């Protein structure tokens, strides 16, 4: 398997994480237990060459890097937040594109600091861009068989469609596209071919480490679909289980026996709380407290959950002004998500 993908410094404040990974390095590292013939093609600055070589040696993959003058880093306050990218993607001086010709299997990720023009028999393309995902063919890349793996926001940006069925139809019209996968977070993923549509689940875990879970999904789909010739829906299901293993453990490489060692149940309707409301309790007297409430609201609503936030729905006022509307919201909710910051008396009352 040939992997064209980024090499980035990742830093997270909570839980603490500070490692040189990125899409390409993580992809090459995560698959090493299943296949030993892995080559990473990437960009790297001088300061990162020794770390990159050590990681390649540890996980047993070959690396070919093109020199760049800067390091790209991602800074996360927490695992679910939108990272601060340094330097900003619009300020990066992009070098010449990598050119990859192979008659083998290739996984191409979108780059921030450059681009990869690929020509291969079987290609999986993951655009990996929250800003401006580009169509696979735009830079002159070709594939005899192509699978596109994108999250919903990327699929919308690539097609201009709001409806997921329309996104799938649009992406499937591309030259030699055999499979399109739209990842939907905890709702699983839509897997489409010219003749079939299947929804595969996400899998429940005891812990969620989300940074890089999409890299693992795309890598394992490539392995099972392109290398092992497994049907797209089955390959995507195995990739979803591999991503769940990674989210639960944060460990690489993913072991050969990951499916049997960790038998996660699929995320079901009850788990998703799709027809229930969460009451978001917590103090909001300081900037830090308000930031935490806003972050909690954004990330609870992202998978489509209904949330009642007293700060946003009722606002700040006297006890007489806010008591009744807060209690009405609380009584209409099924779950309380409480931010215990300083054991605020109002939050404790709501919990009770």
Provide an overview of this structure:
This protein has two domains: 2-261, Ribokinase (UDP-N-acetylmuramoyl-L-alanine:D-glutamate ligase), CATH 3.40.1190.20; 273-351, Rossmann fold. 33% of the residues lie in helices and 27% in strands. The chain is built from twelve helices and 17 strands. The strands form three sheets. Strands 1, 4, 5, 8, 9, 10, 11, 12, 13 and 14 form a ten-stranded mixed β-sheet that branches. It is globular and about 70 Å long. The termini are far apart. The relative contact order is 0.10. The model has no long low-confidence stretch (mean pLDDT 92).
Q: Can you tell me the CATH superfamily of the largest domain?
A: Ribokinase
Low-confidence stretches: none
The main pleated sheet reads as:
10 strands, mixed
H/E element string?
Answer: EEEHEHEEEEEEEHHEEEHHHHEHEHHEH
* Large-scale geometry: globular
Helix proportion of residues, in percent? 25-40%
Q: Look up the CATH topology of the largest domain.
A: UDP-N-acetylmuramoyl-L-alanine:D-glutamate ligase
Mean pLDDT: 92
Main CATH class of the largest domain:
Alpha Beta
Radius of gyration: 22 Å
């Amino acid at each position: 398997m040939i992997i064209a993908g980024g090499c980035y410094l990742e830093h997270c404040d909570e839980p603490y994480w500070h490692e040189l990974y990125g899409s390409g390095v993580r992809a090459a590292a995560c698959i090493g237990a299943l296949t030993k013939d892995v080559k990473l093609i990437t960009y790297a600055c001088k300061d990162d060459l020794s770390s990159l070589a050590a990681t390649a040696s540890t996980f047993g993959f070959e690396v070919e890097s093109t020199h760049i003058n800067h390091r790209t880093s991602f800074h996360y306050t927490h695992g679910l937040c939108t990272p601060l990218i340094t330097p900003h993607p619009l300020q990066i001086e992009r070098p010449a594109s990598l050119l990859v010709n192979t008659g083998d299997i290739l996984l191409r990720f979108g780059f921030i600091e450059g681009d990869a023009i690929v020509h291969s028999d079987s290609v999986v393309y993951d655009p990996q861009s929250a800003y401006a995902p580009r169509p696979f063919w735009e830079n002159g890349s070709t594939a005899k068989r192509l699978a596109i793996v994108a999250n919903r926001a990327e699929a919308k940006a690539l097609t201009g469609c709001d409806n997921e069925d329309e996104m799938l139809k649009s992406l499937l019209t591309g030259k030699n596209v055999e499979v399109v996968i739209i990842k939907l977070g905890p709702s699983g993923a839509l897997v489409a071919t010219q003749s079939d549509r299947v929804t595969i689940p996400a899998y429940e875990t005891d812990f969620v480490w989300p940074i890089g879970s999409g890299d693992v999904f795309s890598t394992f789909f490539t392995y099972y679909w392109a290398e092992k010739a497994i049907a797209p829906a089955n390959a995507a299901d195995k990739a979803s289980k591999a991503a769940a293993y990674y989210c639960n453990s944060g460990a690489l490489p993913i072991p050969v026996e990951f499916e049997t060692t960790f038998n996660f149940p699929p995320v079901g309707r009850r788990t998703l709380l799709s027809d229930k409301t969460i009451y978001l309790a917590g103090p909001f007297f300081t900037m830090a407290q308000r930031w935490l409430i806003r972050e909690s609201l954004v990330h609870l609503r992202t998978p489509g959950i209904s949330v009642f936030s007293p700060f946003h729905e009722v606002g700040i006022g006297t006890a007489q002004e806010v008591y009744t509307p807060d209690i009405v919201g609380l009584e209409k909710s099924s779950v309380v998500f409480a931010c215990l910051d300083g054991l605020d008396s109002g939050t404790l009352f709501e919990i009770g």
